[in-house]
Amino acid sequence: MYGPIPLKKENLPINEGVEEVKVYRDPVDECINYIVQLIDESIPDLPQIITSEATELGRITQPAAMSLKAYVLVTAASPLFNGNKDYDNFKDNRGTLLFNPTYENEKWVKAKDACAAAIDAAELAGNKIYYYDQSNRQYPVSETIRTQMNIRNSFNEKWNAEIIWCTTNSMTGDMQNQSTPRGLDPARRANSSTPGNFSVPLKVADLFYTKNGVPIEEDKTWHYGSRFNLKEGTTEYRYYIQPGYTTALINFDREPRYYADLGFDGGIWYGQGKFVDTATWFLSAKKGEPASKVTNNAFNVTGIWPKKLVNYVNVIEENSYSRETYPWPEMRLSNLYLLYAEALNESEGPSELVYELLDAIRSRAGLPGVVDAWTNFSNNPSKPNTKEGLRDIIQRERTLELMFEGQRFWDLRRWKKAVQELNKPVTGWDIEQQTAAGYYRSRLLYQQKFATRNYLWPIKENEILANKNTVQNPGW
């Protein structure tokens, strides 16, 4: 958030003078090294696995600490902190340079090695890519719904084998209320109490791949310019879109994560008390319909909901909404695979191992491998063969796999892509319209603004006034 911070490795004496208390900010590289040092010191004393699950689930383990170390080192190697020329003259009042302006590939090598070690530790402890196991489930599902369960449950099935570290003090119950559309079950009063305010911008819906596993703007079989045109659902799409319901082309022929992660007008919503493929809910969100704006404090402003955040076993009952809460996953094995793929590509360039890491995640999501997808369906078939092209693919894959998990906010900053991405307008459907032709028009909701200075947050003015040795971050 702030970049360089003061490191106090020993407490100051209680009788220290005023000037000695006015500490300096230490250079970023020194801050990173100290964080890594502290993590390394902790690892030998941590358990490899939790043995007393009833009382200690959520406790930090060796794999959790090693994963955090890997994430720290990937962050340190990323463009915001590795050779960032924007901070060439960022010095304190002693003339000490707080950012190293020279790019160092060795930082990516250290990150790569830390990721490999963390993956080894996690897999030794039993972590693996999650797949929905319906052998002991009361409700068997089709292959299509099972793929969606692979995706949704890898995040919100608590303590599943993919999760390396969860925070047990998280409040996912209220979050699920905000992510569940009101009127999903119009016959039950309880569903009128779910506000469903969490709204997904259209630009996020655009990011998901086509069913062929490439971006919609790159797929040579997909008509990107026509994505707002209308089409009626048929039985061919019955697991995704309500047959006979008119919706936009943007909702057709998308990757499974699109349907697992997003709720949209006309879209099928599996779970919440209906667990048979042929009796799933579907959303109807145009004006006057059950999921539309009924009150001024309980409606979805874009017309798209983050379904991924809602556990499928929650049940909408007559007078209550029974929720299966879950601790927030801070680190999943898929996250660690993506960090490793990124560090490998940045330090060494494209390789079979990078493709294997990406394909392990894509396979779970029902997608072809990276090379096959780009070779057969992209208008840029050689993209995975270069470091720059594969970097773009890895970053897009990371964004999609970890959507709504709190990663994109920080990834855009460390990649120095926030200036491009966070100056794009926030748009949604025209939710005040009753007809499909009126509803499926992009409506400007908010014009985001992000300047270079926003990559680092400002130091409070009172802190600077109290300590003349604390210099402000650039641009503030």
Automatic annotation (TrEMBL):
Domain RagB/SusD: 162-476
UniProt-listed SUPFAM superfamilies: TPR-like
Keywords: Cell outer membrane, Membrane, Signal
Subcellular location: Cell outer membrane
Key word Transmembrane helix present: no
Alphabetized Pfam families for the sequence: SusD_RagB
Sequence segments annotated as region (Disordered): 174-195
UniProt record similarity statement: Belongs to the SusD family.
Name by which UniProt lists this protein: RagB/SusD family nutrient uptake outer membrane protein
Species: Niabella ginsengisoli
